[in-house]
Amino acid sequence: MSLMDFNDCGLVLARYNTWQNRVLFALCDQIGDDARKQSRGMFFGSIHATLNHILYIDQRTLSLLNGGTVGAFTPAIIIADDFTELRRLRVKTDNAIDDFASRQNPAWQDKTRILHDIDGKTNDVPLQIFFLQMFNHQTHHRSQITAELYKMGLDYGVTGMPFTPNLPF
């Protein structure tokens, strides 16, 4: 296999994301609604709220990457209170991330977005950074959820990127 370029790396990240979300949602399905919605002292309170937050940020990031607007930032929003609906939206969003990563036209990578930081400064940030941050953010919050699942006796299993199913090598 030749060295991967940014497009190849993006596709690997998208496939890894889809795989890990499928594993995570399958485990979360096992614990039931009460356990998912129980306040556990997590940053967003519950596993369910954290799953919603990850989805919310993914949808916002996809909107940015596709040239859209995102509106006011509401990090604790509950997009779907029903777990079945949340899972459906997760799959739909993962498919959209995979579709975005699979694009043959890398012209989006030359674009930037103005980002206002918490100190009021503005930066012109390459869209590639937002793309990478989306995956970093997912991993950060999935690890919070997997820590809670581990406390409940559930083994999350393999998380190594080289073991991602359906990689192009």
Walk me through the topology.
Layout: H1 6-37, H2 47-65, H3 83-102, E1 112-116, E2 122-126, H4 127-151
Antiparallel strand pairs: 1-2
Helix pairs in contact: 1-3, 1-4, 2-3, 2-4
Describe, in plain words, how this protein is organized in 3D.
The chain is mainly alpha-helical and 169 residues long. Helices cover 57% and strands 6% of the residues. It has four helices and two strands; from the N terminus they run αααββα. The chain has helices at 6-37, 47-65, 83-102, 127-151, and strands spanning 112-116, 122-126. A two-stranded antiparallel ribbon has the order 1-2. β1 (112-116) and β2 form a beta hairpin. The N and C termini lie close together (7 Å). The model has no long low-confidence stretch (mean pLDDT 93).
Strand content: 5-15%
Gyration radius (Cα, Å) is 17 Å
Distance between the termini: 7 Å
Number of strands: 2
Tell me the series of helices and strands, N- to C-terminal: HHHEEH
Which shape, going by the Cα principal axes? Answer: globular
- Spatial ordering of strands, largest sheet: 1-2
How many individual helices?
Answer: 4
Class derived from helix and strand content: mainly alpha
Features:
4 helices, mainly alpha, 169 residues
